[in-house]
Structures are given as C-alpha cells and as structure tokens.
C-alpha cells in the first residue's frame, strides 16, 4: 500500500522541530550542570591524584537517582556532575518518549510500535540490565 | 600528578579530539579512547565510559541543528534504532565481560578500518527510482531540499541496512564510540540514500544508540564523573570549533593528514592491547 499514511510530511517537520529543541535544551542543561560541578570539583579536590589507571580503583558512586539529586543540592561536586550526566543520557531518551507520545496522538500505529521497542531497550539498559 | 593538572590535560586533549573528530567526520570518540589509554594510562573501561558521554553530547547537539535543515529522515532513524539499540546492549554487555586488552585490540582494528572507510571513493547518489516496496510500506521514503525543489527518494535493501545497523550499535556499545561512519555506510551504500540524508540520519541515531549502552556503563561504574567532565566539555567545545572550520577547510590533503593520525592511533592501541 502506497500513500503518506497517518503521519504527513508537514507533521513530520513539526515533530522534528520539537525533537530538535528537546535535544538542544537537554545538552545545554547537561553541559551547564557538568561544568558547574566541574568547577566545584576542581576547587575542592585539587590536591588528590586521580585513580583511573586500573579499573575498579576509582570510587563507585551510589548510582541511586534520589541520592544523586540530594547530594547535588547539597553542593557535592561529583553529584552535580553525575546529575548532569544523567540529564545528558535522558536527553535522547526524552526524544524517544516524545516521539512515542506524538505517534500515539497521531494514531500512527507502526511508529508507536517502533518507538515503544526502542524505549523498552533503553529502559532495560538504564535499569541496570544487560546480557 | 594532581587532579587539576590531569583534568587540564584531559580537557585540552579532548578539545583536540573533538576538533580532529569533527574535521575527519569520524567523531570525537575514536580519538578520545586512544588518547586516554595510550597517552594518559587510563584504563580502557573508564576511557570508553567518558568517550560515550561525549558522543551523546556532541551527536545530540549536532542532531538538533541538522533536524532543522530538513535532510534528516526521522522515520528511517526511528525504525533503524530498533536495530542499533539492540546491538548497543549486546556490545555494552560484551564490554562488561571482555578483558580490557581485548577491547583495546578491537578498538585498534576498528580505527584502521575507519581510515580505510574515510578515504575510499564514494559511489554516486541513488537516483529516485521505482522498486522500493518495503521502504514505501514502512513509510521510510522522504524528500530532501535542493536548489531546484524537493527530490524524492526511497531506501533499498532494508534488511541489509537493518543488519549492518545492529553491528554499528554493537560497536558503539563495545567501544564507547558513535559508529557514525558505519551507520553512514549502511544508509549510503546498502540503503542507497542521498548522502546528506545518510549523514544527518546517522547522526540522529547516534545519541539514542549511545544512551542504550550508557545505562549499562553507568551501572558497571565505567563512567567516572571526574574523567567524564573534562572529556564531555572538551569534546563539545572542539566539535563546535571544528564544525565552523569544516566549511573553510575541506581539502583532501588535510583529510589525508588526519587519516594518518588516526592510523597511528589505531596501531598504538593494537600494540598496547597485545602488550607488544
């Protein structure tokens, strides 16, 4: 079957416009957080030597989002950076969520399915699962 | 050395990586990992973690710009992300099982292959033609703007493209890179898309692909804030500058020079990984 289907070209353009903004806002916010955390980090931790030579030597973070946010608001530098990194990773995820919701609203079943599958894989990975 | 010096060196190197990456079209990731492991003795797991972060940042920033130009095919991107994200989880899972040296050797081989990819001649753009049955049914066809109006195209050999994309995702997850070159290869050569559609759509997919690996990297402690911070900010800065310079400096001689640098880095990584 040929033809444009539920989603037309002009709708696509509108979706692309919103996705563009999501990506730009996300990267900017993430970069600002990481930079802010970086400044505080360097001011506080300046003397110690970093331990990146051996895997496992560097400190492991809590990885719990609630703790990260709480510590970030307390001004702990690594937490601020980690918050920025979380925002960064969630930026493309947000783009997928937005696409899914948009296709749902447009009743574009095929692309709802594609977006949902991608989102499932992302959530699988983000919640710590692997193969 | 103390943290401030280390961070400054990493930051400076990352700017260079972002610059080199954007001028060669290979991305910062392929330069960052060798830089950190070979030059600074950083363990490869931390290196690929920091690299992956920078890949998400630069590709998302670039995608934001490209989406507005009208060449990106969002639907091809979303469809193929099914393949790339699955591959990414596979690759990232592999990275948690393989010893660091094995990752380094694979990385070196991929670098050498990238050099070959960037220097080879490109076949001419696909002409809009009939037969693209699956492409039409999945509504992957599109249009791109030219001075003479919109040109319609439809992707071919979609199963082949899908397969290559899974591989691209796996490489991205295993090595902490964007695999933009492989994605472009699949879109341009296998699926016969117009070149600018291929490059922008490839870029569109990189961020989501990398995010699929990032979850696994985060949970395994590959991503260290103190290291990811200067890398992310440096590569972002370098890429932005590189994107401006790109318009001015498209000479083949420059690309050959950069390819030689990547070649050297690739050999270094293989040597390092094999403990030669």
Helix count from the secondary structure assignment of chain A: 4
Query: What Rg of chain B is obtained from the alpha carbons, in whole angstroms?
Result: 18 Å
- How would you sum up the major sheet of chain B? 2 strands, antiparallel
Beta-strand residue percentage of chain A: under 5%
Q: Could you tell me the mean pLDDT of chain B? A: 88
What's the shape of chain B?
globular
Briefly note the structural class of the backbone of chain A: mainly alpha
DSSP strand tally of chain A: 0
Q: Please count the beta strands of chain B (DSSP E, at least 2 residues each).
A: 2
The low-pLDDT segments of chain B are none
The topology string of helices and strands of chain B comes to HHHHHHEEHHHHH
Which structural class do you get from the secondary structure elements of chain B?
mainly alpha
**For the report, how would you describe the main beta sheet of chain A?**
none
**Secondary structure: helix percent of chain A:** over 70%
Element order, helices and strands of chain A?
HHHH
Helix content of chain B: over 70%
Largest interface: A-B, 72 and 70 residues
Oligomer: heterodimer
| Stretches with pLDDT under 50, minimum 5 residues of chain A | none
Q: Which strand-content bin applies to the residues of chain B?
A: under 5%
Plain-language structure description:
- The complex is a heterodimer of chains A (131) and B (276).
- Chain A has 131 residues and is mainly alpha-helical.
- Chain A has helices at residues 9-45, 65-73, 77-105, 109-126.
- The mean pLDDT of chain A is 88.
- In chain B, 76% of the residues lie in helices and 4% in strands.
- In chain B, helix 3 runs antiparallel to helix 9.
- The two termini of chain B are 27 Å apart.
């Amino acid at each position: 079957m040929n033809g444009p289907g539920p989603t037309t070209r002009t709708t696509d353009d509108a979706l692309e416009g919103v996705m563009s903004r999501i990506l730009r806002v996300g990267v900017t916010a993430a970069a600002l957080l990481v930079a802010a955390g970086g400044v505080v980090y360097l001011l506080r931790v300046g003397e110690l030597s970093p331990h990146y030579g051996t895997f496992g030597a560097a400190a492991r973070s809590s990885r719990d989002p609630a703790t990260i946010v709480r510590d970030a608001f307390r001004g702990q530098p690594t937490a601020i950076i980690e918050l920025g990194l979380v925002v960064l990773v969630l930026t493309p995820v947000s783009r997928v969520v937005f696409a899914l919701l948009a296709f749902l609203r447009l009743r574009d079943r095929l692309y709802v399915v594609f977006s949902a599958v991608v989102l499932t894989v992302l959530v699988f990975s983000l919640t710590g699962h692997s193969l | 050395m103390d943290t401030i010096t280390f961070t400054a060196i990493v930051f400076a190197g990352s700017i260079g990586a972002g610059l080199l990456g954007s001028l060669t079209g290979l991305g910062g990731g392929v330069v960052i990992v060798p830089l950190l492991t070979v030059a600074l003795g950083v363990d490869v797991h931390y290196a690929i973690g920091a690299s992956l972060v920078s890949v998400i940042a630069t590709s998302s920033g670039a995608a934001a710009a490209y989406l507005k130009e009208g060449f990106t095919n969002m639907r091809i991107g979303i469809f193929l992300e099914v393949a790339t994200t699955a591959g990414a989880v596979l690759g990232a899972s592999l990275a948690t099982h393989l010893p660091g040296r094995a990752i380094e050797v694979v990385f070196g081989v991929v670098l050498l292959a990238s050099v070959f990819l960037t220097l080879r001649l490109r076949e001419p753009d696909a002409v809009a033609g009939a037969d693209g049955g699956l492409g039409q049914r999945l509504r992957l066809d599109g249009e791109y703007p030219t001075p003479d109006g919109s040109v319609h195209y439809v992707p071919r050999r979609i199963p082949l493209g899908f397969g290559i994309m899974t591989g691209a995702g796996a490489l991205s997850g295993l090595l902490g890179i964007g695999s933009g070159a492989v994605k472009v290869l699949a879109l341009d050569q296998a699926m016969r898309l117009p070149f600018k559609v291929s490059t922008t759509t490839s870029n569109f997919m990189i961020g989501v692909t990398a995010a699929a690996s990032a979850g696994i990297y985060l949970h395994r402690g590959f991503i260290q804030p103190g290291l990811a911070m200067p890398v992310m900010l440096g590569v972002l800065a370098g890429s932005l500058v590189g994107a401006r310079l790109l318009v001015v400096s498209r000479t083949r001689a420059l690309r050959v020079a950069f390819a030689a640098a990547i070649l050297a880095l690739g050999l270094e990584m293989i040597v390092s990984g094999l403990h030669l």
